[in-house]
């Protein structure tokens, strides 16, 4: 079968000063993430890396409120893109870290995990507020 | 259990902009690490009156286990006479590490020094070649080699050297006895454990071995360090029962109610391998005889 298989990478962006989201700064879009990831691949893996991933790389979803995003890569090069994500130090000149939460074969698995993760975060916040 | 055995305690030079220790530890807790070791780096002669500069008394309340570590930067073999088991001052640190800067000190560290970790400066070209024979000797003695990933995140040239040196080390040591640590000066240089496992795969390890590098190998380092400090010829050590944590009470057995509190001592073996049940019973009965 010559079917092109993908991997869906679920990631979270952590910013340096998360406490106050400045309203004058534009919220990040999935396009900003896409540009940053492409730059990181170019920087770390060169033209070869860009070539391998250009046809299949796609940031499907990113929410600036929960800082969670979903990225699609071809299955053969997902480790390369994962490393490129790890080496990212800033997005749009805001210092940040990317942490990969899950790598899955289908969107559905990732979606289940996002729901779980959000639930945990809400429970944590509730606990903190109660205390 | 994820370990990060290298969190610099104090900035090396004034130029280094280091984050507050608390911020970095909070980041580690958020990423899911369970054990961290604060690293104090010292250059020069190994003396016999080092006191533990790392103060963890006020940070006890966090839900991460905190250890202390000392790293000596070795420049000359003549400075190393202090690194022996008899040096009591060094026993105040949990883990002992060494950073050799030339071939002679590297050979000395692998052959004779009583240490737990050999840390190599991965961000720039290594001043000596890594040879199978010498590295193999260190592995046999139970010494671990450390790869730090934060230099790769800071700087592009360090990244190149790190990947090159790390691949070299993995090839020479055949993937054994390697640990991956952070050496992060700032909280933004830390990465989650599975991201580190992925970095390990580009250094030439497979996923299982890379995961071991931040879990079981680090645990082996901690146990090796405890064996080195507490035991005589790695056989027997005595600890009072009161020093056991609540999740270790199973070691004392079902009759812990009958034991008088505080006074009696229980032999606790510090061996990295699993105990033989037969040997355990006979040894403990021998010791009870001795008490009487």
Automatic annotation (TrEMBL), chain A:
<dbReference type="Pfam" id="PF01900">
    <property type="entry name" value="RNase_P_Rpp14"/>
</dbReference>
<dbReference type="InterPro" id="IPR002759">
    <property type="entry name" value="Pop5/Rpp14/Rnp2-like"/>
</dbReference>
<dbReference type="GO" id="GO:0000172">
    <property type="term" value="C:ribonuclease MRP complex"/>
</dbReference>
<dbReference type="GO" id="GO:0004526">
    <property type="term" value="F:ribonuclease P activity"/>
</dbReference>
<keyword id="KW-0539">Nucleus</keyword>
<dbReference type="GO" id="GO:0005730">
    <property type="term" value="C:nucleolus"/>
</dbReference>
<dbReference type="GO" id="GO:0033204">
    <property type="term" value="F:ribonuclease P RNA binding"/>
</dbReference>
<comment type="function">
    <text>Component of ribonuclease P, a protein complex that generates mature tRNA molecules by cleaving their 5'-ends.</text>
</comment>
<comment type="similarity">
    <text>Belongs to the eukaryotic/archaeal RNase P protein component 2 family.</text>
</comment>
<keyword id="KW-0819">tRNA processing</keyword>
<dbReference type="GO" id="GO:0001682">
    <property type="term" value="P:tRNA 5'-leader removal"/>
</dbReference>
<dbReference type="InterPro" id="IPR016819">
    <property type="entry name" value="RNase_P/MRP_POP5"/>
</dbReference>
<dbReference type="GO" id="GO:0030681">
    <property type="term" value="C:multimeric ribonuclease P complex"/>
</dbReference>
<protein>
    <recommendedName>
        <fullName>Ribonuclease P/MRP protein subunit POP5</fullName>
        <ecNumber>3.1.26.5</ecNumber>
    </recommendedName>
</protein>
<dbReference type="InterPro" id="IPR038085">
    <property type="entry name" value="Rnp2-like_sf"/>
</dbReference>
Automatic annotation (TrEMBL), chain B:
<dbReference type="InterPro" id="IPR016195">
    <property type="entry name" value="Pol/histidinol_Pase-like"/>
</dbReference>
<dbReference type="GO" id="GO:0005655">
    <property type="term" value="C:nucleolar ribonuclease P complex"/>
</dbReference>
<keyword id="KW-0819">tRNA processing</keyword>
<dbReference type="Pfam" id="PF01876">
    <property type="entry name" value="RNase_P_p30"/>
</dbReference>
<dbReference type="InterPro" id="IPR002738">
    <property type="entry name" value="RNase_P_p30"/>
</dbReference>
<dbReference type="GO" id="GO:0003723">
    <property type="term" value="F:RNA binding"/>
</dbReference>
<protein>
    <submittedName>
        <fullName>PHP domain-like protein</fullName>
    </submittedName>
</protein>
<feature type="region of interest" description="Disordered">
    <location>
        <begin position="252"/>
        <end position="292"/>
    </location>
</feature>
<comment type="similarity">
    <text>Belongs to the eukaryotic/archaeal RNase P protein component 3 family.</text>
</comment>
<dbReference type="GO" id="GO:0008033">
    <property type="term" value="P:tRNA processing"/>
</dbReference>
